[in-house]
Amino acid sequence: MLRYKTLIGPSLRSRTFDRQKAEAAVAVRCINRFTALGMPRSIRIG
After folding, report:
1. Amino acid 1: pLDDT
2. Residue 12 in 3-state DSSP?
């Protein structure tokens, strides 16, 4: 939650519900991308 609030802010900026859903979806995609970039690659040895 801290990373979400740091990236997006403490509240949604949009007024309509549809735009709030889109804003939240974009934020979640950004967080998922940051998480994917930080994960190590597993390589099978042997």
Report:
1. 67
2. coil
List the chain pLDDT tens, one digit each, 46 residues. Answer: 677 777 778 888 899 999 999 999 998 898 899 888 888 888 888 8
Helix (H) and strand (E) counts in the chain: 2, 0
Q: What is the DSSP-derived secondary structure letter of residue 11?
A: S
In terms of Cα–Cα distance, which of 10, 11, 6, 4 is closest to 32? Answer: 4
Which residues touch 3 (CB under 8 Å, ≥6 apart)? 31, 34
Distance CA 22, CA 29 (A): 11
